[in-house]
Amino acid sequence: MLRQYTLTCLAFCLLLLCGGTAAAQQGNEQMASYYYQNHEYDKAIELYEPLYDRTQNNYYYQMLYACYCETEQYKEAEKLVEKRMRRQPRDLTLYVDLGLLHQKRGEKKKAEKQFASAIDKLGHDSKQTTDLATAFENCGRSDYAIRTYQKSRELMDNELIYVMELASLYCKSGEYDKMTAEYFNLLDKSPGNIGSIQIALQRALNETSSPDLANGLRKTLISRIRQHPDDKSYLDMMIWFSLQQKDFDFALTQAKAVDARFPDQGSQYVYRVAMIAANNESYGIALQAYKHLIAKGKEHPLYFDSRVGYLAAKYASINKSHAIAPKEQAELEAEYENALNELGKTPKTIQLMRDYSHLLAYGDAGRSNDNSRLQKAADLLYDIIDMPRLPNNTASEVKLELGDLLLFSGEIWDASLLYSQVEKANRNDVVGAMAKFKNAKLSYYNNDFQWAKTQLDVLRASTSKLIANDAMQLSLLISDNMEEDSTYETLGYYAAADLMLYRGKLDSAWNLYNDITVRNLSHSLFDEVLMQKARIRMKQARYAEADSLLQRIVDHYAEDILADDALFMLAELNEQQLGNKTRARECYEKLILDYPASLYADRARQRYNTMKKEN
């Protein structure tokens, strides 16, 4: 009994001793780390040396090696590495550590010898290969990392291993031809890897500022297509690359080539080019692609989608223009009628019906008061709302559009009722927030400024960045001018003019905006007035006058909230309507430099870079 008690006490004491040792070791490790981070390397060495001697832990080895190097105790560091090499001969990264010591002492030949020795000792061990290559890469010797992977390939007699690793290293060292060769050799042997190759190339294109990569990739792809004219993989790669570069014209040419050689699958490539081109506002190419598919006939599986896509792209291209020629609109309306007669009013043609309704109601300001057209536009939206099993989100969006149409035709309270219905049914999502914003704007039109501002201030915290920004701008417009004019008279004129502009009554709106400048020698609304007058002139296709009005905002109100809007509109106006590419590029550049936080900054940078390449 006494013996058992003695053994128990002894075990308990040993447990306490071990626990105390572990706690002490942890404390020493934390203190050593503290000294290292504060560049007190000598003190860190005093703690790391016993920690490493006791455990032979790799982390303590690395920290002790780093401390010796920081204090230039190269002999001590060399002893440390050589001793560890004897204990762990398979750890080839130690040769890299030893080589780096020689390199630090200016012994270049000895350093290269150690690096080469590490590679010579490689075996059939993938982890050993990866660890060694990573060690070389971490110390800035990508050349030796490449040699490591190449040696392992020879040992394994397998050209398809380490493709991604080698390609990445070639890219970092600017050897783009070798990088593409790696990827395309893999594609030759294993076409199923095309997805992972495209992802890797996309990352390289995004991270590389030099145009050499894109230019070299294009040349290599063209060469490979000529060498392998019947290999769909390279045609697929060329289409993908052209889309990445936003060269939609070339992408469509390649997609048509695939369609000609591989009729069973090629149409999908043409359709993909059409959709991506349309999403990037390259409507001319999108229309060509859709036409190509429509010409295949009604029995083609993509005929229906292509008909809908074609009209959507054509509508978007016309809608983007600030003024629609009556002839263009009449032709497009006839196409919509034909399409709906052929395809029917079904859930699959909802977007087509919505676009047609928008075209009828807002397309031509000269016919905006035609009640029959407005009624036809409204009937299309009612037809959608009456469809059975219509998703709630779609129904709510269409109701908002119907509310907009009612407001456009002067039925303010009916519009408000619809907005309120949508808001109530979608309290916690973006559609509900949009309905709330539209109702607040309607209150603004109705001169109920206090209520409108209260609702807008709530919306400034919306999860939708677009809604929050619009709410903030209108809230600031109201608050700034409520403070300046206690009677709200000028703000009332401005709101009435805004409503006239929304309803397409351009001459009435212009006269009301003019009244504001006539009645006031100066007013904080003057920059907003200039902006709205510029929008009127663009709708009337009087682009030179619009240009002059926008330039006045840039010149005289550079610090105000509309300055970046005016610059972006100026750039687009000169690029698309006035054909002055040089001035457009200058406006994009000024926006990027002077307003880097602008919502337009990214789009301006894309357009600027594209225009720079075109020159």
Report what the structure shows.
The chain has 615 residues and is mostly helical. Among the domains are: 72-152, Serine Threonine Protein Phosphatase 5, Tetratricopeptide repeat; 542-615, Serine Threonine Protein Phosphatase 5, Tetratricopeptide repeat (Alpha Horseshoe), CATH 1.25.40.10. Helices cover 78% and strands 0% of the residues. It has 32 helices and no strands. The protein has helices at residues 2-37, 41-55, 58-70, 74-87, 93-104, 108-120, 126-138, 142-156, 163-172, 176-189, 194-207, 212-227, 232-244, 248-261, 263-279, 283-294, 303-320, 326-343, 350-362, 371-385, 392-408, 412-425, 430-445, 449-459, 465-484, 489-502, 506-519, 526-539, 543-556, 563-577, 581-594, 601-614. Helix 18 (326-343) packs antiparallel against helix 19 (350-362) and helix 31 (581-594) runs antiparallel to helix 32. The protein is globular and about 95 Å long. It starts with a helix and ends with a helix. Residues 5-20 have low confidence and may be disordered.
List the main descriptive attributes of the protein structure presented here.
615 residues; Serine Threonine Protein Phosphatase 5, Tetratricopeptide repeat; 32 helices; globular
Overall residue-averaged pLDDT value = 88
The quaternary organization reads as single chain
Low-confidence stretches: 5-20
Helical residue percent band: over 70%
So, the CATH homologous superfamily of the domain at 72-152? Tetratricopeptide repeat domain
- Write down the overall geometry: globular
Helices and strands: which structural class? mainly alpha
CATH architecture of the domain at 72-152: Alpha Horseshoe
Radius of gyration: 35 Å
The helix tally amounts to 32
Count the strands?
0
Q: What is the CATH first-level class name of the domain at 72-152?
A: Mainly Alpha
Q: Terminal Cα separation, in Å?
A: 98 Å
% residues in beta strands: under 5%
Q: What's the CATH topology name of the domain at 72-152?
A: Serine Threonine Protein Phosphatase 5, Tetratricopeptide repeat
The largest sheet, given as strand count, sense and whether it forms a barrel, is: none
